[in-house]
């Protein structure tokens, strides 16, 4: 039986010019399955979004990973509609009321992480979701959300260089890398600020499919790829 | 009086994993005003989105323009929910049932433009919308949508280099630039493929606010800016 639900509110044409805030729909979780958002056989990229996420942190990697053979990208969020720091809104494909099997959990950063690091419910979801994620890829201050858990303890990691002091102060048990465009340690790929995520995403393509495939996507997107993780023009210290 | 409308359909949690297609809401246009989506006094960026737009064509410029002082970015589309080629969906802030005064009309490209070049209704909207746009900025094959009108006639322009032959074949009256990361001619800023839009957006910041401001945003986003419009590594011919 087909079930229909409604995303409520948010007239996009209100004469006031006001944009309705992200709204809570009356969502039944009874229809969820463990792989809910994904098509069978795809490389499953699940990207966490939240209000005031940084646009390019998410969409740079989405661009590159989305050109990988057989990839499928879905957004997971606390609400159905999420507003980026730059304004445009995205629609979640599934909610953090559940966790999902996936191949890559992508976590962007942004000013929204400043309050989210104190969100106990999200932290609990993250720990459970990470356990069901083959790999985890953070961009920018997305790393801060991991730093609030113990998953990075003992693992080399990096983050946005302008926010380096803040993020690294959140967890003393992480050997923070002050000079790195990105770092892969175990199942965790962490990258530096904003655009570094796009470079790290192409690295991930190379890691999975080889250099030729990464170069194909680089050419397709006319991208100037910084393919050296140690070439970090924004390094601190 | 507050009016509420509903974005219908699209359960984000259907057990089938199926994502509902973009849906038409019962939208009343009576509440529209000429500046509907924007806050008074902002630098108004209106970005056209359509199904199968290319993610980074839109979100690269959104990232950079969104950090400009006083900018406001709104999405305009034919439907309330639009799906990118890479999968994630965005929410339109207003519809192409009307045109809007804006400072910058941003038009991304993507595989969706291949059919849209034959969409007479969209073409008519574009011509009317361009007349109400202080400047127009196309990325990648977004230029193809302009090429179907006469607005670029006699103006230097460029586009994605892998699609150069197709786009340039659409209009013989445009002096197409085979080697250019971006071109500004009159009110039209056209850029090369995908990532070139991000470079061109930073150029636009510089054009409006000076080099220091562009460099500030470049640093903030840890971006490797190709700031020379003649440095086109993907040039053809």
TrEMBL record, chains A, B:
PROSITE patterns this protein is in?
Answer: TAT
InterPro entries given in the database record = Class_I_gatase-like, DJ-1/PfpI, INH-QAR, TAT_signal
Keywords, in A-Z order: Signal
Q: Where is the DJ-1/PfpI domain?
A: 44-200
- Taxonomically, the superkingdom here is Bacteria
SUPFAM superfamilies assigned to the protein according to its UniProt record, in alphabetical order: Class I glutamine amidotransferase-like
- How far does the signal peptide extend, from start to end residue? 1-25
**Name by which UniProt lists this protein:** DJ-1/PfpI family protein
Q: State the organism named in the record.
A: Shewanella pneumatophori
């Amino acid at each position: 039986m087909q079930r229909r639900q409604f995303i409520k509110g948010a007239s996009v044409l209100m004469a006031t010019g006001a944009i309705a805030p992200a709204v809570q729909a009356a969502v039944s979780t009874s229809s969820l399955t463990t792989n809910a958002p994904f098509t069978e056989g795809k490389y499953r990229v699940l990207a966490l979004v939240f209000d005031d996420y940084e646009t390019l942190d998410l969409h740079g990697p989405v661009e590159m990973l989305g050109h990988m053979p057989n990839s499928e990208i879905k957004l997971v969020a606390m609400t159905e509609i999420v507003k980026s720091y730059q304004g445009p809104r995205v629609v979640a494909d599934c909610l953090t009321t559940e966790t999902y099997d996936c191949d890559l959990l992508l976590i962007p950063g942004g000013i929204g992480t400043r309050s989210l690091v104190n969100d106990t419910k999200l932290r609990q979801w993250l720990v459970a979701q990470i356990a069901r994620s083959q790999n985890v890829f953070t961009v920018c201050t997305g790393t801060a959300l991991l730093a609030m858990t113990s998953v990075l303890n003992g693992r080399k990691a990096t983050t946005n260089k302008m926010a380096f002091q803040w993020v690294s102060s959140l967890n003393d048990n992480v050997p923070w890398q002050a000079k790195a465009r990105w770092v892969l340690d175990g199942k965790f790929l962490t990258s530096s600020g904003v655009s570094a995520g796009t470079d790290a995403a192409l690295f991930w393509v190379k890691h999975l499919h080889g250099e030729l495939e990464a170069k194909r996507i680089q050419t397709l997107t006319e991208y100037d790829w910084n393919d050296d993780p140690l070439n970090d023009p924004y390094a601190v210290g």
